[in-house]
Amino acid sequence: MSTDAAKPVAYRDALNQALREELARDPDVFLLGEDIAGFDGAFKVTRGLLAEFGPERVVDTPITEAGFTGMAIGAAMAGLRPVVEIMTVNFVILAMDQIVNNAAKIHYMFGGQASVPIVIRMPGGGGHQLSSQHSQTLDAWFAHVPGLKVVCPSTPEDAKGLLKTAIRDDDPVIFIENEGLYGKKGPVGGPDDLIPFGQAVVRRPGTHCTVIAHSRMVWVALQAAEELASQGIEVEVIDPRTFRPLDLDTLAGSVRRTGHAVIVDEGWPEYGISAGLATHLYEACFDWLDAPIGRVNCADVPMPYAKNLEQAALPQPADVVAAVLANIGRGVA
Amino acid sequence: MSTAAGAEAADMRDMFRSMYLIRRFEEKASEEYMAGRIGGFLHLAIGEEAAVVGTVSAMRADDPLTSTYREHGQALARGADPRAVMAELLGRSTGLCGGRGGSMHLMDKERSFYGGYGIVGGSVPLGLGLAYAARYRKTDQVSVTMFGDGATNQGVVAECFNMAGLWDLPVVFLILNNQYGMGTSLGHAAAEEDLYTRCNAYGIPAWKVDGMDVLAVRGAVAEATRIAREEGNPTCVELLAYRYRGHSMSDPDTVRDAEEKERWRLRDPIITFERVLLGEAVMTADDIAAMKAEVEAVVEDAAAFAESSPEVPVAELADDVYANPFNDDARGGALMP
Ligand SMILES: Cc1ncc(C[n+]2csc(CCOP(=O)(O)OP(=O)(O)O)c2C)c(N)n1
Ligand SMILES: [Mg+2]
Q1: What is the second-level CATH architecture of the domain B9-251+261-308?
Q2: Which of A34, A39, A60, A63 to mutate to test the pocket of ligand 1 (most atoms within 8 A of CB)?
């Protein structure tokens, strides 16, 4: 492994490395999205790629999410491997028809004749005072749909390794980044280090309670774990990393050992990721649970602009601490 | 005294004051942002004041107006209280929308300003719906919906052109063409740069005017609203303009070249209009100085008011989600994190 691999790399640059390496490796890979070429992308993930690979492989689109996402799906049917950048998850809503009615259906509906090897990447999440239309977490929308694969990396290493896997995968992959993680630094793998889908990872081992969190919430959970450790409570923090496929074995194995589970999810509480995971865990671990599964979610409201309201709406480490304490029967929530 | 585009002297003074208020208000807002009192995105329309004020000055007070996230000027031109607008930008309880919307989502329904929206192209069908309601109720209101050059590429905008043409709805599609959508120039995003010509395909009368000239804008929008009100037909007006600042406060604006920016600054809509006012003896230099001082005080007062306004109580986080709220016990403790 090169010495470079040991150097901490920002999440955005880890994504950039994955894109650069895959563009270099496979001539069928091309990128498209708004402001990704001349402007380097709204979050600078595609920085330098236009200069290196040219305008035929790094394509600026008009502001037409439905149109260019659908176009990329068509190109994928012809065997190309488009990587679409949607500026933020809030704008993918315009392309949902193409993703749900076309990308997710084509392989099945036509009896396996055509696959759609597309990656649609975009950041989600709140916390930047962008108000109701720009702060959403819609992971659950995609995780709901058979035919899609859904990936939510929380570290630079995962961002790189999972994106490379996504690009080489033959199915439509929804790759959800987080606006709050682009600057986060950490080690990354080399050009051949792919991270397979469907493998959860233990971010911190513990025995008293399992805390399941993904994307930015992993870091919120880890902060809470520190605080709880100072009170003598050791939680096990597990990051599922992908929701389709889901590594239920690792999640359920941990919950069976600890007898307690708290799910931290930046999405809304109703019918979402935390609700889906809780159902899986009740079905897999009912007899091992010592308390009902706890959940920490974004408040069940559109995101407000005012900073104090937004902070109150988003899951905070203190909320996770309180939920764990309540779950294991110590302290009040 | 009556002058160009049918503007009376009093109208012209009002228009000048409105443009100057918007300019100074936004400059103040940028200071508030730099001081960390405004968060999120702050999109300034500095340079676009003629387009905004010319449009609003040609509308009847009850004509509904919809806009994008670059809408401080629309709110102010419509007569929204500068204190409440600034307080909204600071996320305070005294804000126009109670601190929920912020800079991108101002609304003053009482003044028929139906809001600023953050999804590019997403407000255009709302403008069409307001026109639909006007025709349905036979109110003879005209709906004006303003959107950017970038937004014209969204499919939903084409859908709206078609419906407006099909059903003869009293709507004015107002394309504020500042020649960029974030870092992408018009020519890089649009197959045909005369954006108004898209309406030809739908039988909608459409034309382009100089968006840096407030009287030209007023004249064009007056004609467009007349066609809608008297003949019941849609129109499209493209205003060619320029924003002096980057896309938002966080855009370092490195894509556009300095020479181009300078060229447009020489056509500053406020300075140009000031010359017209002096030349046509609508205002004296002293009148203008006095008006500027008065506006200055309004802006300072708005900022002071906003800064000293209380935060929104966190207990009100879940208010207003519904017009008819329900008490859903199933949510249990999940409502708050
Ligand atoms: C559907 C959608 N896609 C992308 C964005 C991100 N975005 C915000 S403003 C903007 C540029 C819009 O340009 P234009 O319509 O010309 O308006 P301007 O900002 O110039 O006033 C983009 C791409 C968005 N808000 N909504
Ligand atoms: Mg524009």
Answers
A1: 3-Layer(aba) Sandwich (3.40)
A2: A63
